[in-house]
Amino acid sequence: MQLSRRGFIKLTGAGLAASSLGALGFGPAGEAMAAAVRPFKLVAATETRNTCTYCSVACGILIYSMGDRAKNARSNIIHIEGDPDHPVNRGTLCPKGAGLLDVVHAPTRLKTPRYRAPGASEFKEVSWEFALGRIARLMKDDRDKNFIDKNKAGTTVNRWTTTGMLAASASSSETAYLTWKVARSLGMVVFDNQARV
Amino acid sequence: MTNTWQDIKNANLVVVMGGNAAEAHPCGFKWVIEAKIENSAKLVVIDPRFTRTASVADKYAPIRPGTDIAFLSGVIRYLLANDRIQHEYVRAYTNAGMIVKEEFGFVDGLFSGYNEDTHSYDKSSWEYEFDEQGFAKVDETWQHPRCVINLLRKHVDRYTPEMVTRICGTPIEKYMEICELFASTSAPDKAMTSLFALGWTQHSVGAQNIRSMAMIQLLLGNIGVAGGGMNALRGHSNIQGLTDVGLLSNAMPGYLTLPYDREDTFETYMSTKQFKPLRPGQISYWQNYRKFMVSFQKAIYGDAATAENNWAYDWLPKLDVPLYDIIRAFEMMDKGEMTGYICQGFNPLQAFPDRGKIRRSLGKLKYLITMDPLDTETSRFWEDFGPQNPSKPEDIQTEVFQLPTTCFAEENGSLVNSARWLQWHWKAAEAPGMAKSDIWIMSGIFHRMREMYRKEGGAFPDPLLHLSWNYTDPHDPDPEELSKDMNGRALVDLKDASGAVTVHAGKLLDGFAQLRDDGTTASGCWIFTGSFTEKGNQMARRDASDPREQGIAPNWAWAWPANRRILYNRASADPAGKAWNPGKPVIEWNGTQWTGIDVPDYTPTTKPSDSVGPFIMNAEGLGRLFARDQMAEGPFPEHYEPFESPSENILHPKVKSNPAARVFADDRAAMGKVADFPYVATTYRLTEHFHFWTKHALINAILQPEEFIEIGEVLAKQKGIVQGGWVKVSSKRGWVTCKAYVTKRIKPLIVDGKPTHVIGVPLHWGFTGQARKGFGANTLTPSVGDANTQTPEFKAFLVNIERATGPAV
Ligand code: SF4
Predict the structure, then answer these.
(1) Which of A117, B11, B28, B92 is least crowded, fewest Cβ atoms below 10 Å from its Cβ?
(2) Mean pLDDT, chain B, as a whole number?
(3) To the nearest whole angstrom, how far is the Cα of B634 from the nearest Cα of chain A?
(4) Share of chain B above pLDDT 90, in %
(5) Over the stretch A72-93, which tens digit does the pLDDT of each residue have?
(6) Is residue B315 a part of any domain in this protein?
(7) Are B429 and A49 inside 8 Å of each other by CB?
(8) ipTM higher than the 0.95 cut
């Protein structure tokens, strides 16, 4: 009997009759065990395909979350494992990828924008409106003050060197493209990513 | 990578040098094991430490950090002296026979054209001789004394086995055995793959480390073939994508380059880009540069980019220096020349060289913005965390914004893996709390600034006001829409020569051959054209079938360029079009066209008799054993010592380190001397950690909970350092106290007759997250970069080590 791993999980979790478990070759001990285990928790979970966020082997992963994506139902990720269909990792993960669930739920995940005023000894929580408004003001003031439209020779150069940016090499290419557009349309040249570190 | 991860299994010889794949890329390294088991491949590891990769190697050789060029130049000498090169390949596919200008030379460590004041070269002599038609002259017989192969022979002649072992500290018999293993793959049907990573790039001669091996691979005929190639095992999950999309100071998407001040008009800019073929009949693909460039400007500026305004060329910022790299950025910051800095998913306080300088510089900013899912050290640089981050917050006037972002599991989008595959991923959950995506945040900043410019006016607002932004939700563009922008579309009905419409206006393009230079097509990243077509999102393809199980999987996701999985695959076949290795052909000529398991480098009907070279991005169509003017420090690699080195340069004492490196005066003053810092240090990752994020994940923090260094038994004994005891490691720039791991895996090397000790410094610690508080390796590292890329020299520097007492508990 050919049964995919995922199909197997579905079958057993759905309370498979002992006789057909026997047909899978488990024998009486397997039957007794199958009867004793509670329905496998991933059966009710939603499966999402994703990629390990760490290194560029880019192992395929399956993320399992509670919640069925219905509006007002908040998904909660409960399990992450290697994608057995992926041609590179074929279901395996290394010690980094195997810990992905813990980074998703790290206690140091940030949840609120925070702001530290000059000289202050701590952060305070602020609204997005405050943060983005203040950032746009600071950036514009600096750009207006220091933008170089022509160099000494009179060539149009349109560059802004006094505010710089480091872009994230774990972000998607789509994020990267949008970031490029915004940074360069402002004339930013001090601009880099993790390619070198 | 020129090849794929799975293709490693086709190798006969795997050389890991400049990396540690078993620990840093474990799930990719399984293909090395596959090669050993299924293909009887041999694994050679050359590394200062006996790593886990070395532990499964057939041959392991130690090497002093920073001496790889000497080692590899010696290998080139061996191959040439013993005539162990793949002649037919070298003759047909490399520039071995090209004749170099008479003015070219190399004396006492310097190539012709050196300018001592500017630390740079006039490279005009690093060039071929040309005939009346502008084609490079060739001597097919290799008799001419100035043809490339003879100049190379002369250049590497100094790298005798004795010289190599004096410089590198590698035992001579191990070195000779490895030379012979390399040479065994000169057989046309044998392939060697080179796997490398930051162990090669993070040197002041990083790019030349890689070139040295690429030259060996050309001489052995190992580029383009199954199981061969130069395989850079890249770092972050989308570091390839960020590079492809051009998020580097001098880059634009698809490896177009930002203009320099001297390129004052669009035509001047273009005049240096559209390389004319240097040999008859060659493709020289950059001849299409204008199509890529105009289509790009149309993608980002839409109707505002017109032929009349030269496609808004002036709206691109121009560069007055080669690079505004990170070392320069922090130099500027330290001098008070910068106001603001945005760190998107980036933690420079831990990641950049000379952490003291980084902390000091951040404190001189008016504002710092961090966008990250995690609580990074950088966002808290101003806080006092004791010796690991001493600070007086009241003295630091920087405004800091710590913006919470989504992580990988909370977004849709594509990542480009090391093998150039664009793989789509899907969102599994909402972000915690008020965290938002980087797309939302960048859009928010953009809209607010544009609104301010509309209301208040200000410095040159045109590019901002005209930036095309045709997204369904302008405040949170859908990643699919951004992908389609990058793929590109027709702006009018595109017609062929007969007048028939090939692509209707508004439709997505199938490939970059459809791009035009008259403003009728738009494409945000030409190498991605074909990734999201009218047939749908090609990056989301999940058919893992693999013809002949040869590790190509052509219908899984999508690879740039044009879904080609092995770059330069034309070179997998001989000049007549037959596979060098009949057991593992990639593409072959069947009499009318190229067929096989991969997408050919060029039009499938190009006849072998047309002699079109496989290296289509080079104007010669050939692989370069002589780099012309492409490198900062010379057209051939040369051994230069790391900037902090325990040894003189025994080849040319007057030119010790890379003469073309850019070193800022204060960074030079912060270099240590061997008298004070007698040991060589090198930094690296552990398999349980990825940079500074995983210490936020509980399981990883449990697996490797605290900062330590690795020291060999001999030095530990000399210094009275015991297993697990506390040590203080210091460089001219700072110090770290942590525990010592005394190991058999690092042994002293005999360099020029003297014992040289190496200390290993894993890099993962900091003062946020769940692991114990630490300093971080970059407290010690020097601020000097590779002369071409400015990649910092993290892999070879000088330290001292002493026994210490631990912190009071
Ligand atoms: S699981 Fe490990 S090898 Fe795979 S992508 Fe993640 S970090 Fe890389």
Answers:
(1) A117
(2) 97
(3) 21
(4) 99
(5) 778 899 999 999 999 999 999 9
(6) no
(7) no
(8) yes
Range of the domain at B23: 6-235
Compute, in angstroms, the gap from residue A60 CA to the centroid of ligand 1. Answer: 9
Return the pLDDT at A13.
45
Which residue of A lies nearest to B21 if distances are taken between CA atoms? A57
Q: What are the tens digits of pLDDT across the range B616-631?
A: 999 999 999 999 999 9
Q: Indicate if the alpha-carbon torsion angle B109, B111, B113, B117 is positive or negative.
A: negative
The per-residue pLDDT for range B252-275, each reduced to its tens digit, is 999 999 999 999 999 999 998 988
Alpha carbon distance B349, B358 (integer Å): 6
Nearest ligand 1 atom, CA B25: 3
What part of A 83-142 touches B (C-beta under 8 Å)?
85-89, 92-100, 102-104, 106-121, 123, 128, 131-140, 142
* pLDDT, tens digit (0-9, with 9 covering 90-100), for B202-248: 999 999 999 999 999 999 999 999 999 999 999 999 999 999 999 99
Single-letter residue type at B595: T
Number of domains in chain B: 3
- Whole-angstrom distance, CA of residue B18 vs CA of residue B311: 43
A96 CA from centroid of ligand 1 (Å): 6
Domains and CATH numbers, chain A: 5-36 (no CATH), 46-104 (3.30.200.210), 110-145 (no CATH), 147-197 (no CATH)
Q: What is the DSSP string of B420-432?
A: SEEEEE---SPPS
Containing B217, the helix (H) or strand (E) segment is helix B206-219
pLDDT in tens, B732-750: 999 999 999 999 999 999 9
**Average of per-residue pLDDT across B458-481:** 98
Closest Cα in chain A, distance from residue B581 (Å): 24
Residue B524 to residue B219: CA distance in whole angstroms: 37
Question: Cα dist. B186→B91, B148, B152, B228 in Å?
Answer: 13, 19, 18, 12
Chain B closest CA to A2's CA: distance in Å?
A: 19
CA-nearest residue for atom 1, ligand 1, is A97
Q: Does residue B764 sit within a domain?
A: yes
Question: Domain end: B216, B235, B254, which one?
Answer: B235
Query: Which of B177, B209, B235 represents a domain boundary (last residue)?
Result: B235
CATH of the domain at B366: 3.40.50.740
Say whether residue A13 is in contact with chain B using an 8 A CB cutoff.
no
Pocket-forming residues, ligand 1, beta carbon under 6 Å: A 52, 54-55, 57-59, 89, 93-94, 96-97; B 25-27
**pLDDT tens for each residue of B69-84:** 999 999 999 999 999 9
Q: Are residues B55 and B164 in the same domain?
A: yes
CA distance B508 to B497: 20
Mean pLDDT for A14-34 is: 52
B:279-308 residues touching chain A, CB 8 A cutoff: 300
Residues in B touching A176 (Cβ below 8 Å): 238, 241-242, 245, 247
Locate the DSSP E strands across A43-152: 46-51, 60-66, 76-82, 114-116, 124-125, 148-150
**Do B789 and B689 lie in a common domain?**
yes
Q: How far is CA B729 from the centre of its chain?
A: 30
Whether B10 and B147 map to the same domain: the answer is yes
Q: Is the pLDDT of residue B102 over 60?
A: yes
Residue B106 falls within a domain, yes or no? Answer: yes
CATH number at residue B724: 2.40.40.20
- Residue B50's CATH number: 3.40.228.10
Task: Tell me which residue in B383, B421, B426 faces A49 most closely, judged by beta carbons.
Answer: B426
Q: What is the pLDDT of residues B371-384, one digit of tens each?
A: 999 999 999 999 99
The answer to whether B291 and B254 have CB atoms below 8 angstroms apart is: no
B681 & B797 share domain: yes
Tell me, yes or no, whether B525 lies in a domain.
no
